[in-house]
Amino acid sequence: MEYEVVIGLEVHVELNTKTKIFCGCSTEFGGAPNTHVCPVCSGMPGSLPVLNKEVVNKAISVGLATNCEITRNSKFDRKNYFYPDNPQNYQISQLYYPICRNGYVTIPAKGGSKQVRIHEIHMEEDAGKLIHDPVTDDTYVDFNRSGVPLIEIVSEPDMRSADEVIAYLEKLRETIQYLDASDCKLNEGSMRADVNISIREMGSEEFGTRTESKNLNSFKAIRRCIENEVNRQKEIIESGEKVVQETRRWDDEKGVSSPMRSKEDAQDYRYFPDPDLVPIMVSDEWIEEIRAKQPEFKDEKKVRYKEMYGLPDYDIDQITGSKKLGEIFEGAVSAGADPKKVSNWLMVETMRLMKENDMDADQLKFSPENLAKLVKLVDSKEINNSVAKEVFEKAVFLDDLDPVQYVADNNLSTKADSGELEAVVKKAIEANPKAVEDIKNGKGKAVGAIVGYVMKEMKGKCDPGEVNRLISQLLK
Q1: Global pTM?
Q2: Which of 87, 100, 274, 407 can bridge 63 by disulfide, Cβ–Cβ 3.0-4.6 Å?
Q3: What is the pLDDT of residues 210-245, one digit of tens each?
Q4: Which of these, 153, 157, 184, 170, lies nearest to 63 by C-alpha position?
């Protein structure tokens, strides 16, 4: 029997506001346990929440960017459940009137592209974090994350493969990062996904029984979990049994999943309107104010880069993959550097050093102006490519130092005195008679020995092109 996989996602994104959703505590990641807390986010009796307007602004901006309808009269509800990292014994969320509804994003798919519908986007508060000590078998609670603002993006069951799921998540991450609504770092939990998976006989209109895999925080884990769960459900159905609707935990190290609990229905949470928070009245003017501040997104930027800079499609795709890289590229070009050369520095040396230093693009600190200066130093033959790479790595990439000043302070200029360079070339010719003989006999590669000698004597501070010219001239 052939099966069709049906997948829907619930994606939780921590918004990068400076303070929490209902209090003034810091949302900064890390910090000593239970230091970013107050009576409100630690659930003390008598404390009252006050809504952070910036959370609403960011939620609406994500809704507009994902083609959602913005709910004009929105409100918060209490989702009641007990768990140790939930100090109030309820979570403030949105069930009945979420801030955004009925949107979609377009993703690449087999044969072109497809739309993945978004059922809703709602705002809520994050819970705390449980930390298990395997040595003492104790569990500790850190409430620093409690009250950090979340949006939950709930898709329709429109995805049919792990590839489409990853494409959808990449599209959401790219869009939200361009909006500067969240850093979407899966490894820090600021973006995480619950994956709802079912299978059905190919051609059937009826959905199969779904399972939910919770809080997956890497694309690799999500892909492996989907593939594992699809195979698990196939084996169950083909053995004559029925798939049980449940929530499952994925262990990425072992490559297996295990049941956590049977799937709850909404009534189990006893939702009711939060009595401490007033409804949110969203006016047309408020929406248009946010819409006017929306950035140029990747798809629009790719078209403009093609028209303005004439870069290859591969270059454009790499640069526009990050809002930060795009800003550095455009800034360096505006400062007078050649677009293709700037692109090369970003795609080769920058990405190499990012990988070596385990950095994301949004952690880059060097200025576009300093990158432009480095490109110009090479163009003017003040330094050669080898020296330029050294300057970029040691001065520009990590410390954002002025490359012109760094070259001067460290005597790295390749503009040697012409008489001095000629004397070194003559010395190299005299020291390599075999290479000279080979060159005269038509073996052009032999010139490398003489060039290498000169570069060593000059400590790399000379232009290889000028060295080759002098060798040719002197041998003639």
Answers
A1: 0.83
A2: 100
A3: 999 986 878 999 999 999 999 999 999 999 999 999
A4: 153
